[in-house]
Design goal:
2 copies of one chain form a homodimer. Chain A contains 11 helices and 13 strands. Chain A is α+β, with helices and mostly antiparallel strands. Chain A is globular and about 65 Å long. The interface between A and B is large, with 76 and 77 residues. Strand 3 of chain A pairs antiparallel with strand 2 of chain B, so a sheet runs across the interface.
Chain lengths: 330, 330
Amino acid sequence: MKQIRSVRVSDLGERAVIERIRQRSGGRERGVILGIGDDASVVRGPAKLLLTTDMLVEDCDFRKASFPPFLLGRKSLCVNLSDIAAMGGKPLHAVVGMALPGDTDQLWLDRFLAGFRAAAAEYGVALVGGDLSQAPKIMISVTVTGEAGKFVTRAGAKPGDVIYVSGTLGDAAGGLRLLESGRRPAMRGREARLFRAFLDPAPRLELGAALARRAIASAMIDISDGLAVDLTHICEESGVRAEIDLAKIPISGGLLLAVDNPLDLALNGGEDFELLFTVKKKNAAAVERLSRRFPLTAIGRIVRGKGIAAQYPDGRGRPLEAKGWEHFRP
Amino acid sequence: MKQIRSVRVSDLGERAVIERIRQRSGGRERGVILGIGDDASVVRGPAKLLLTTDMLVEDCDFRKASFPPFLLGRKSLCVNLSDIAAMGGKPLHAVVGMALPGDTDQLWLDRFLAGFRAAAAEYGVALVGGDLSQAPKIMISVTVTGEAGKFVTRAGAKPGDVIYVSGTLGDAAGGLRLLESGRRPAMRGREARLFRAFLDPAPRLELGAALARRAIASAMIDISDGLAVDLTHICEESGVRAEIDLAKIPISGGLLLAVDNPLDLALNGGEDFELLFTVKKKNAAAVERLSRRFPLTAIGRIVRGKGIAAQYPDGRGRPLEAKGWEHFRP
């Protein structure tokens, strides 16, 4: 009896794989003069060009068994788009480098590419290049270009500024915890929000652009390593100190019900991909208007000094340690 | 007795590693408005922006034991610069994604970065961003931007054009073969050229730019997968056929002495990073002038049809099969 087996990437050959990617990439949108298929692509460069790169590595950033490939394709682009959002920019182009085990199923690759393409279409990004190699674990490296008019760095926070975050924090870390405990992702029910936050994060591009356009934000970062670490980045780069009220940290009902340490995940869980930004008092009304379109929460203020002071729900103040997730933790 | 051991990347922590990279990257050159250290970098975008990305994976593209980290740093940038050269462009910026095993020696990383920095300085490239992750094998993903005025694609070859290559072919494959047989790289002696071709390839940026500037080349590609495969790319993209004279393929004396199949390596060995290009007859004098500054060899001509016909040294003509190196070979 003939055994039925799936087609593997190693059966297709590199050129066939690249041809698949090429066929599925966009046309002349986003100023693309020459797309995939030559030594380099040629695009129209904006006056202020943003560049950012992010990697996803199997068993470090995701597990193949629990991460649907379509969503992994989306996320591998969206984590980069979140960096563009944090600058207040508009994304333009993407190139993707992939190293795959030779026995990777062709269907897995097709779904990954379909997800990447879906996110690219949703956010108006043109896939213009790539590279393919072989490795024992799946590694995905995406570089994205963007266009900035006014852009917002991490270094502009000043004493007196109010600190805001978008959305709720800790959901992605909660979703990861559920997955790691062996739970299957559910896209309905009260845990859906947590799974979605980890598996299918949405970059805050509109919000970032709105905050940059009229210079509403004085400093901005996307929360990828956890609030404590990323607020520390703003404080260090701006040369200021932050005071935050932990009772004000936005935490979803789903997270409160799902884990026993929601505040810890909200402070130190990674991959929220929400925006953390500071606002001068004179821009309070502008933020107020934006808060009708986006979920925004004021969590504290910038003062002179260094470090972060946290007021705990019991009323006591303590320094907040940045113990968020990082690679190569000592 | 206290044991002396080297510092590992995992002892440093991710932020310390990124700080090392940041300190070692350039300043405001190449239109860099905001360099490493924010969510994205901001650079001045040229009117015609080139984008290319390449990956190097341990045990697929190099072995850690036999590849000096300083040279690996250089090569990880230079393979991308070769793509910019093949478009006739000028390189501008680079971002680098690295996934490293946690036990990677700090000295290894420092030497890698020193090599990357040395090549960046040599070719005028600004390192503007990066990402760091953990993986069981070293993976390096570099994306480079460039500027193109006139650029040369793979698709412009026409019947009657003469086919040229720069340098000598097969040396890198010969060097790899020596390394794989356990030989230590020697930078002197008759095999030095082979080791250098594999370990420290030089992108043909000046030649590529000269060929593009006055539209001397009608089609161009860098030879990364071997002459046969890369000439096939030009033929397919241009819709033409190539006739080459194998007796004219430039082969170094070092390669002739080192291996028993030099012609096979010259045709099908990868990573030469020489330029393969076609030239209209009216530009013969211009190429002749360039050949005083660069080692150029005419190896055949473009005709109507498809595929590649090779005239063998015995005078017989046979079709040439593109069996060059590729990832995921079936």
